[in-house]
Amino acid sequence: MRVDLIERARAILRANDRGGYTVPTDRLYPFQWNWDSGFVAMGWATFDEPRAFAEIARLLRGQWDDGLVPQIVFHAPSDDYFPGPDVWGVRHDPPTSGITQPPILATAVRRLLDGARDRAEAEACVASLYPGLRASHRWWEHARDPARTGLAATLHPWETGMDNSPAWDAALARVPVETTTPIRRRDTSHVDAAMRPRGEEYQRFIHLVDLFRDCGWQPERMLAASPFKVIDIATNAILLRAERDLLALAARFGAPGDVAEIEVRIVRKERALGRLWSGVRGHFLSFDLISDALIDAPTSAGLLPLFSGAASAAEVQAMAATLRRWTGQVRCAVPSTAPDDKRFEPLRYWRGPVWAVVNWMIAEGLAGSGEPALAAELRAATTQMIAHGGFSEYFDPRDGTGIGGAEFSWTAAVFLMLGIDSEVEVRS
Ligand code: DGY
Questions:
Q1: Other CB atoms closer than 10 Å to residue 135's CB: what's the count?
Q2: What is the pLDDT of residue 425?
Q3: Measuring CA to CA, how many Å separate 283 from each of 153, 300, 348?
Q4: Can 393 be counted among the known catalytic residues?
Q5: Does ligand 1 lie within 6 Å of residue 158's CB atom?
Q6: CA 128 to centroid of ligand 1, rounded, Å
Q7: Which of 8, 35, 43, 98 has the most beta carbons within 10 angstroms of its beta carbon?
Q8: Can you tell me the distance from the alpha carbon of 236 to that of 272, in angstroms, rounded to the nearest whole number?
Q9: Alpha-carbon span 280 to 367, nearest angstrom
Q10: What's the pLDDT score for residue 428?
């Protein structure tokens, strides 16, 4: 891996460091984002372990008493982003949004610990982070799966991190466009509007924020009132993987009973995830809890159960074939929507572009599921894509052009992580 690019990636993390937390990129995202910080911490860990742990500790300062780890922590004011803390109306210090994001944190913390050069320091850090992680996983169950089905509900497209995925089209269309909050989008003054969600989607996003604020951010009221309620396959796959990583931490850092508690959740989730398999599509699907039906959309999220370790050998084979098929239709993999689907839009955010973090998770899943060659291929292709397209927020799958925000923290982090992963691969 080229030394100048490694230095460039490190420089991006340093430049986006706001004194103990990392913004995803300057101006477009001027606060600390939940799942961004999980990936960013893994990137920091490749060259600055204390800073990596600090990233997660700082995010957890935004954690609520009930265990919720918010999607955004507003550490310092900024006019560059909408909706800011005034719209969310959450009473917390530091101010936060009132929804969450895919739970990658336990996975990040385990990777930090496993790769630590300073073992004693890492153990002390994990000991202090572990209770927050445990509370967060308990929150996912009591707030989002109170019936203990094994599948956690998501109530806002922003919670999936894949805001305008075609998978949400039908579910989001049921959300009214009326808002009590006036919409003052700032994103389209930083990035070409053709690469961002459409205006009508924003109206529905803000309608949900208004509704949840009126629910007083109480989980049971939100769950009952939300017209958008899905089982997001990405969130659930990431959560299952995170439960396995939390289990590994629990044996060393947990209280008596933690291991058994987590094991029960894992068994339940493994069984439940299997119900979301689509043999016709050759990947897993999300589920719409309002229409009570699988969501038939071919998106890269459907490959993430590879990362959870829950797919059967036959499912792994089928997903590998799906990945090869999609890869054969574009220059750069993995497109966020299948290129032959009519909803594919190569430039528009989560409707087609390639995202480095998704590639990293899919590659990690392939490597752990008996597909090391395909994993190595995807890692090498992702490294190449970033080397040529820059450290962009996302990439045009047709030619690898970097698009969206520039100098993006999680893309830099993935680049650094891939350097470590491919060294491990060469050695093993
Ligand atoms: C945004 O505002 O674009 C984010 O994706 C919300 O997390």
A1: 17
A2: 56
A3: 20, 9, 22
A4: yes
A5: yes
A6: 29
A7: 43
A8: 10
A9: 24
A10: 45
